[in-house]
Model the fold of this input.
Amino acid sequence: MKCVRSRIRRPIIHLPAEEGGSDLDFCLVNSETRDREPWPSCPRHILRVALADLHRETGTRLVTACEHEFTYSHPDIAPASSFTLESIRRFGSFADALADASEAADLGFDTIEPEFGVGQIEVCTEPRIGLASVDNIVFAREVIREVARRQGGRASFLPKPHPDAVGNGAHLHFSFLDDDDKPAGFDPDAAHEMSELTRHFVAGVFQHLPALVGFCAPSPVSYLRLGPHHWSCGYAAFGVQNRECALRICPSPVLDKSKRGKAFNIEFRPMDGTCNPFIAVAAIVHAGLDGVRRKLDPPPLVDTDPADLTDDERTRLGVYPLPATLQEAIAAIEADTDLAANLPAEFLDVFLSLKRFEATLGDTLTPDDLCEKYAYAY
Done:
C-alpha cells in the first residue's frame, strides 16, 4: 500500500486502490463565506482562533496526541485473551497494513496494540503541534476505517459497541512548546513537575469539565461509556496516572531532568470518537485559558477511584459527578456562559439544537437499540 500526504497547501490523504477497489482521496479545508472570509462556524476556524488566543496570551503552542480506541470486527478473526501476543497475532495482517499506511502517510502511529475489550484495538499517535495534530485525529480515523474495509473487516469508534462491551475512548494528551520549541508545560522543580502555565491551564479545564464533556462526549452512547469503574471517568477528579480521573498527569519516563519535559503531558480522558475533534480541542483550550487568566490552581490530587471515596472525602478533594446523560451535558453547556462566550453564537445554537434532538431520540431507545442505531455512523 502506498499513501501520499501533502505537506504544502492543504492536508491531503491519498491511498491508491488495491486490486478491484478504488482510491481513497480526501483533504481537510476551511469553510468560507461568499466573500472568501472565514465562516465563523467552521470547526477548523474555531480551533484556529482558540490556538491563536493561546499563543497570543501565553507565547506557547499546543502539542497534542490521541489514543484512538476502536472495535475491529472481521468474519474470520476470533477474539483472543486481552493483552496477549496471540491477540495481536490474530490481527496480524490488519496491524501490518495499519503500520504501512501510517508510515507512508506520515500519520505517526506510535503503537498499535490489542486492548482489553473483545476485538478492541488502540492506536496511539505521536505528539504534533497545533492544528496539524487535530487534523491528524481525523486522518487517523479515516485511514483506520479504510484499511479495515480493505481487509474485509470494519473498524468502529463507537464509545460502546453494545451496552456490556468495554468502552472506546479517544484520550487526548496535551502539553506546550514555546517559540524556541522548548517544553513550556514542564518544571522539574515544581510540584508534580507542572509549570505555572500547566497548573493554571489544568485548573481551568477542571473548572469547566461538565460543559467540556458535552463537547467531547456528545452522543447518547457516550454516557454508556462514561461512569465509575469503567476506566474512563464518572467524576471530575485530577490525579497522577489514575485511570478513573477525568484529568491525569502522565509523568515523563525519562530520568534526565534536562530531557524529561519532552515526554511530560496531561491526559484528558472523557473524549470519544463521536466528537468533532476541532470543536472538542477548541473548547479545552478556551477552558484552559480561563484558568490562566484567573490564575486558578488545580484541586488536590486523587490517588484512588473517586467512586470509592466518601461524600466528605470527595468534597475535600473537590471531586464532583460529571454529567451522566447527554441531557445533563447539554444543561452544563447552557449553564457555562463563560465558556460558551468563546464560541460563535450561531454555531452554539445549532450544536445545542442537534444535541437536544439526539438526546430526545436516545430517550426513546433501549441501550441495545441505541448502540445498534449509532454503530454504522461511527
